[in-house]
Write a structure and sequence with these properties.
- Helices cover 40% and strands 15% of the residues.
- It is of the alpha/beta class.
- It has a single domain, classed as 2-Layer Sandwich (Nucleotidyltransferase, domain 5), CATH 3.30.420.
- Helix 3 runs parallel beside helix 6 (158-171) and helix 4 (117-125) packs across helix 6.
- The structure holds manganese (II) ion.
- Manganese (II) ion is lined by residues 23, 25, 154.
């Protein structure tokens, strides 16, 4: 496993293939308040590419943006709703097409309520992810070895997880339903940013009664 750290954008000429696992690290859980610090990507080959953003508000990154918007490249997330909203707000990009392992898990693994990435990777891949660096300062000028390894680990297993969940979805006849949920995700993220997150005080989900 190699972790490649890039500053401000992906390097020129890097081809991550037709299916790219992506995750983001931010300064917090509110996309409008908390800035995007890191975007992690993997082609599913055991390596991770980390794009670090420095100064607040500086998000040029033309190569990363092109990849996010490329209709020929499927972007695989775990809880993509958040990452897609974060990248739409900070990078000004509509990420598509997308796949979400959390939604796939909820549709396929109805025998459990454990759909966190750690639980999913443990059960399906047999790897125990450390979450020790999850809540750390991702805007630090220099990221620690632990931070880099943690950030990378969030994208390194998503291809395997997706393959297993795809088989389970097919087994249960839910492939089309899952695809429709994934297609709706960018709209769900746009609703979150536009004020229909459904998690505010006294505020219910748009689709609730
Ligand atoms: Mn992460």
């Amino acid at each position: 496993m190699t972790v490649h750290l890039h500053h401000g954008d992906l390097p020129e000429g890097l081809d991550l293939g037709p299916v790219v696992a992506i995750d983001t690290e931010t300064l917090g859980l509110k996309p409008r308040r908390d800035r995007l610090c890191l975007v992690q990507l993997s082609a599913g080959d055991g390596d991770a590419h980390l794009v670090k953003f420095g100064a607040p508000g500086v998000y040029e990154a033309p190569r990363l943006k092109a990849l996010l918007a490329d209709p020929k490249v499927l972007k695989v997330f775990h809880y993509g709703r958040f990452d897609i909203a974060v990248m739409k707000h900070h990078l000004g990009i509509d990420t598509q097409p997308v796949y979400c392992t959390k939604i796939a898990s909820k549709l396929a693994r109805t025998y459990t309520d454990k759909h966190g990435l750690k639980d999913l990777v443990k059960e399906l891949v047999g790897v125990d992810l450390s979450k020790a660096s999850q809540s750390s300062d991702w805007a630090a000028a220099t990221l620690s070895r632990d931070q880099l390894d943690y950030a990378a680990s969030d994208v390194l297993h998503l291809h395997k997880v997706k393959a297993i969940l795809d088989a389970m979805l097919a087994r249960e006849g839910r492939t089309a339903l899952a695809a429709q949920c994934f297609a709706f995700l960018p709209t769900r993220a746009a609703l979150d940013l536009a004020g229909w997150a459904g998690d505010g005080e006294g505020e219910r989900d748009l689709f609730a009664h």
